[in-house]
Amino acid sequence: MAQCVQSVQEFLQDAFVPLVAALCSDEAERLTRRNGLSFAELVKPFCRLTSEVHMRDPNNQLHIIKNLKIAVNNIITHPPQPGAIRKLLNDVVSVSQPAEGLVANVITAGDYDLNISDRSIKASVPWYSNWKETLMELNTSTFYTATTPWFESYRESFLQSMPASDHEFLNHYVACMLVVSSSEPEPVEQFLKLSQEQHRIQHSSDYLYPKWFIPNTLKYYVLLHDVSAGEEQRADSIYEEMKQRYGTQGCYLLKINSRVSNRGVDEQIPDPWSQYLQKNSIQNQESYEDGPYTVISNKSADHLISDGLDIDIRDGLSNNFKAHPLQLDHPSDTSGTLDGTDFIKTTPSLHESKKSSSGTPHGACLTLTDHDRIRQFIQEFTFRGLLPHIEKTIRQLNDQLISRKGLSRSLFSATKKWFGGGKVPEKSINELKNTSGLLYPPEAPELQIRKMADLCFLVQHYELAYSCYHTAKKDFLNDQAMFYAAGALEMAAVSAFLQPGAPRPYPAHYMDTAIQTYRDICKNMVLAERCVLLSAEILKSQSKYSEAAALLIRLTSEQNIWMGMDSDLRSALLLEQAAHCFINMKSPMVRKFAFHMILAGHRFSKAGQKKHALRCYCQAMQVYKGKGWSLAEDHINFTIGRQSFTLRQLDNAVSAFRHILINDSKQPAAQQGAFLREYLYVYKNVTQLSPDGPLPQLPLPYINSSATRVFFGHNRRPAEGEKQAATHISLDQEYDSESSQQWKELEEQVVAVANKGIIPSNFQPTQYCLNSYSDNSRFPLAVVEEPITVEVAFRNPLKVPLLLTDLSLLWKFQPKDFNVKHNEETKELGVCGSDVIGAEVIAEFLINSEETKMARLKLFPHQTGELHILGVVYNLGTIQGSTALDGLDPSIGMQTGKLVSNGLSVRGRQDLEIQGPRLNNTKEEKTSIKYGPDRRLDPIITEEMPLLEVFFINFPTGLLCGEIRKAYVEFVNVSKCPLTALKVVSKHPEFFTFGGNTAILTPLSPSASENCSAYKTVVTDSTSLHTALLSSASSGDFGVGTGSQPEVIHVPLLDSVLLPGASVQLPMWLRGPDEEGVHEINFLFYYESIRKHSKMCHRVLRHTAVICTSRSLNVRATVSRSNALEDEEGRGDNMLVFVDVENINTSETGVKEFHVVQVSSNSKHWKLQKSVKVSEDKDTKLASRERAKLCFKAVRCKSFDETYTFADIVFGNEQIISSASPCADFFFRSLSSQLKRAHVQSNTHASQAAAKQSFEAVRLIQKCSEVDLNIVVLWKAYVVEDSKQLILEGQHHVALHTIGKEAFSFPQKLEQPEMVLLKFFRPENTPAPTRPTPEQLSNLIKTSLRYPESFNHSFHQKSLCLVPVTLLLSNCSQADVDVIIDLRHKTTSPEALEVHGSFTWLGQTQYKLQLKSQEVYSLQLKACFVHTGVYNLGTPRVFAKLADQVTLFETSQQNSMPALIIINNI
Strand 1098-1110 vs strand 958-960: parallel, antiparallel, or unpaired? Predict the structure, then answer.
């Protein structure tokens, strides 16, 4: 149970006090009424004695009485009606509410901090978010106790209002005060009249009420004197006469009203009466007997709030008196029978009538001296009158009992003998016959024992009282007078508990037997309830909370109504106390506490105690909240919402219903529909109170704010026929972080080119679609007159569909021209703002059950400025067809045939609040939780900008590898501004070209147009077959210069401007990528406005082309040095180029065969001279899986800075001019990508060995074996498709870099290394090789011998044959080379040994020379032969090293082929 203000001993003592009747004359009553009080009310605050009182028991032992209290009541000659008692108790509970502003009581139970106080409503409902913090602040100690003053008030009123019964004497009057005013003419006669009146009331059969303790009731005569009226002497004389007549012990002179009326207002006199006087007193019977009642029967009140509103609520009247169930004891009463759900309306209500009188102060004519006089009067009455009378009565009763029983000893001394009887077991109660109707005569010895026991109990002589109760109990049980026995058992248990020193344990079984007897046999629930209240308090004081809770709950299960008492109010209070018992256990049972608080709240609600019901549910919510008990939470919140609505706490009601809807409910669809309709109805009532107020937040549907996407710009036009629109970006595309990064890099590249190689500091990558993955730290830029689309992610958590109507965006706009500042203007959606921002409104937006659905809402800005998108505004409703539940009729407010229920649709808003990314850069941000801004909903509206649309015409989706195809691109300016500086950037510039600078001006050749060829061709004559046709071109002509970005391509527009509304078509050549498969190629079109803007400098348009390539040709090439030292021009450098072409195409693609029609070379230093053709066919045909090998001679050519020499070797009738578009374009683009990769590698090597001098030597030596020659193989493919033969054409590139190393036209895949054990080692910087390899060193000098192939000599004439031989030495490097020629070397190689004979060199046999860069040196030698034969002259050995390298030794150079000479004899 909850903590009480009184201790259990004080409570039990005050529950049973001596009753004193007060009978006043009219004049005496008038004197007290001057203070707004009756005589009984006047003395009530002073009825507790402040000092100890002594009396003697029957054994003449001194007995001390402490803290004695008496009760003085006016005589009322009829018992109160049960309906009046019920009304009083309801009012007492209703008026006693938790006081506002007091410190909260908090119980710490396990993991719970339960707020049991006036703040409990705020602290437990969902809308009070800080309840946990509040509890933690208040919970400074480990245990707080909870008080329930309404229960104590109920208990006190219940005990005081109990009617007197014949089976006990506790509520019988012991004495009677006769009060007469001293101002009456004959006070003594008036005393006689009052005495006779009292005698008549007590002894006449006309009066059955009140009950009197003994026939000889103590009469105490009180003379009331008004001090302000004077006449002190008359009062004293009358009092003297009274003392002579009644004795000094039987009368008293009480002087009151000493206060002068004109005394200062500032004097403050305490008002001790306010805490004792109930607004609805049980003594005011007239208010209950004659008050008219209007009965409003509403059986469906608890089913639908909209139909259950009573008149009081709608009129805004007080809610305290409206819902008290008045259940009368007899169904034949004229007032009618009401059940617990009926409402009553009283006119006028007692509460309101008392309200005016309660405002006047009590005791207005009394001073503090008068207070002391009244207190002294009560003490004198108790000391001299009441207690001696009780002591005398106890002695008389004791003597009578001893004489009647024939006992030799007094009752007090025979206690043990009386205790010898066996205890009657509880189960025997049910076996006894129903003798509850048995009545004893007043003079019966059993009643005399009970009377003596009650008197002893009233004067706190609990040991003697227990003895008498125990004796009476045995007698009653023997007589089977169960009604009397139950009363004796009840008081015996209380007496045993109250005995000082606790000589025996509390006999709880006595009380259990009494409760069972009252309830089951006597059918008296009032007395059973009294037993429960007493026993539960005793058990609680002994910390037997479990037994106390069981006792309280046992009585609440009784559903019947006995003696007119309402079981709902009683059950509610007892269940609440049982809940507190569970929470106060040593191991608190928190869930049982919550469950019984729910039961208590339900019974409070049935009893009409709406505030208490709401409080109980809110306290229980503290336990169930957040523990996963979703169904219990739903029930509690639903009830809280209804009770709050009934109490006109509309905000709380909305919040409670909102909490039901925003949780992931496990309720069935019908129940969720009922919850939703209740919420909509309550919400509508709230909005009607303030129709012009701001739109409140709606809980449904859920909005995933972080998933909100914002798109800037128009939707692109779809493809039309052969036209394919640029894909750009749309809300239908999924976000790809890798792709987004590629677009960003492309834009950075083109911006750098547009700004002369520097990216501006204020550069902001263009983002047309903002989402949770994009960088939203900056304000996005939107263009005026271009729509802004916001995609909002709605989720319906319910199992019933939601219908949103008139859905649109809520925004705030600040006009700004970025030069003049304006005051901020907040414009809501509506007509007034349409000239600034146009908004799209979605008329109906249906979200099915548990569906996530995207809504795309548009805004159309008409002015420049700053726009802030705040949220969405809409009408929330549900569609017709939802199942009715809980008394709700789905047809309410609906019209047949309409989708929307007009009566259940409310307007509200939801804000879009997006949390930015968590910051994690600085130390402070890493150690704390900070979030950056997310500004995707705060765009800046900039000035008008051009808008480009791009269409691709005849754009292929499938190509052969290396295939060349011609398409067209259409550029359209759909804005009102001209655009310029149109560029396109791509990661794959080798895929496409718009042609060189002269491509537009150069007309196509007739033959090319006839054959629909993409190349520029000319007809060749037969004399030029297999011979190179030369031309030249600069890389700058094709946009590939030094220092430029090859990925950025300028689109050749006429005058570089595209006017508003204009369109232009340009040719575009495409080349299939060298790798087969599906390729995604990104194009980024960049353009600017002619007018420079401060906010937006440029715009971009994206396009992603998907190309599927299939195999075609595989080209491999190698280059080797030619043995001949001089070409036709007399130069000493020439090479042989071998080209291997293989058809790797499969027949599935329909390609019949490939024709190699031309091989071209492109280089700054080399050119193809002629073809070494074996067969006489014009071209090379390759069917599937066939291959061919071509051989060409290459020679050096004159080199210019950026000029490439193009040499075309034609195998057919038409020469494809390789130095023109598109052949040269694709060559330069593929070349630039290769150079870029090589440049990165060379940079890394150079940075590693920049400080080493020997690196230069290594590079010089390496250059000897390097060659810069590019081969372009042009081909045609014959394809059979749909019985038609098509001719496809294409080209492959092979870049030759190193002599003797094979090069490929397609990138080589690296083989995966075998799995090896993982080894950990410290990485070391591996420098570039400081010494060249022997193979590199052996290629510095190229040697060649010139001599006659046969020589005739007459050995008969001259025995020695001398033959002149020229040794040609060619320096292949770019540096000076020291050369040593040694002629003494004897050949031992197998090839030389096969040649028979030997010879010798005459003259100088060793030479040391220095050859300049690329120098060819001729050395004259003489060979001496002694006989005929075949000789090998290739015996000279050449050693070489770089001239400036001291550390390097001379290395033997590679010998050329064997030089054979034939010596003939003539």
Answer: parallel
Percent of the chain with pLDDT over 70: 75
Q: How deeply is 1418 buried, as exposed, middle or buried, from its count of CB atoms within 10 A (0-12, 13-18, 19+)?
A: exposed
In tens, the pLDDT along 318-343 reads: 333 233 332 333 333 333 333 333 33
Q: For residue 1450, what are its two tokens?
A: 């001379």
DSSP 8-state symbol, 918 = B
CA-to-CA separations, 87 to 282, 287, 328, 549, 1151, in angstroms, rounded: 10, 11, 10, 27, 105
3 state SS of 1380? strand
The three-state (H, E, C) secondary structure of 1029-1063, written as one string: EEEEEEHHHHCCCCCCCCCEEECCCHHHEECCCCE
How many CA atoms are closer than 13 Å to the CA of 432, on its beta-carbon side?
24
Q: DSSP strand E in 816-957: where?
A: 837-839, 842-847, 852-861, 865-877, 906-911, 940-942, 948-953
Q: For residue 1122, with 0-12 CB atoms within 10 Å meaning exposed, 13-18 middle and 19 or more buried, which class applies?
A: middle
Separation CA 478–CA 463 (nearest Å): 23
Paired residues of 1028 in beta bridges: 1209
What would you measure as the largest C-alpha separation in the chain, in angstroms? 202
- Entry pTM: 0.67
Residues with Cβ within 8 Å of 1202's Cβ and at least 6 positions away in sequence, in order, are 1034, 1035, 1036, 1041, 1042
pLDDT for res 107: 53
Beta strands at 852-861 and 837-839: parallel, antiparallel or unpaired: antiparallel
Pairing of strands 1361-1371, 1429-1432: unpaired
- Determine the 3-state secondary structure of 1071 from DSSP: strand
Q: Which are the contacts of 771, defined by CB distance < 8 A and separation ≥ 6? A: 707, 708, 709, 710, 735, 936
Give the β-pairing of 1166-1171 and 1284-1298.
unpaired
Tell me what the mean pLDDT of segment 245-253 comes to.
89
Amino acid found at 1194 = A
Q: What per-residue confidence (pLDDT) applies to 1312? A: 61
Q: If you average pLDDT over residues 772-785, what whole number do you get?
A: 89
Give residue-wise pLDDT tens across range 555-578. Answer: 887 554 444 346 888 899 999 999
| pLDDT-wise least confident of 424-428, 818-822, 1047-1051, 1389-1393 | 424-428
Beta strands (DSSP E) in 768-841 are: 769-770, 781-783, 788-795, 802-815, 837-839
Q: Give pLDDT, residue 1458.
A: 79
Nearest alpha carbon to residue 609 among 641, 573, 575, 574: 573
Give helix 567-583 / helix 82-95 axis angle, nearest 10°. Answer: 40
**What is the rounded CA–CA span in Å between residue 1101 and residue 1115?**
37
Could you tell me the strand order of the sheet in which 1460-1465 lies? 1350-1353, 1460-1465, 1429-1432
Residue whose C-alpha is closest to residue 767's, from 564, 916, 936 = 936
Measured CA to CA, the distance from residue 930 to residue 401 in angstroms comes to 89
Distance CA 185, CA 178 (A): 17
User: Residue 1230: phi, psi to the nearest 5?
Assistant: -70, -35
Tokens of 1444: 């400036």
Which residues, at least 6 apart from 924, have a Cβ–Cβ distance to it below 8 Å?
A: 930
Taking a C-beta distance cutoff of 8 angstroms, is the pair 1421, 1347 a contact?
A: no
Please state, in angstroms and as integers, the Cα–Cα distance from residue 1038 to each residue in 989, 1033, 1055, following that order. 12, 9, 19
Q: In whole angstroms, what is the distance from residue 626 CA to residue 1304 CA?
A: 69
CA angle at residue 725 from 721 to 727, to 5 degrees? 140
Of 609, 517, 483, the closest CA to residue 154 belongs to 609
Q: Would you say residue 1009 has pLDDT above 50?
A: no
Instruction: State the DSSP H helix or E strand holding residue 968, giving kind and residue range, or none if neither.
Output: strand 963-973
Q: How confident is the model at residue 792 (pLDDT cuts 50, 70, 90)?
A: very high
Q: Is the pLDDT of residue 277 over 60?
A: yes
Supply the mean pLDDT for the chain. 77
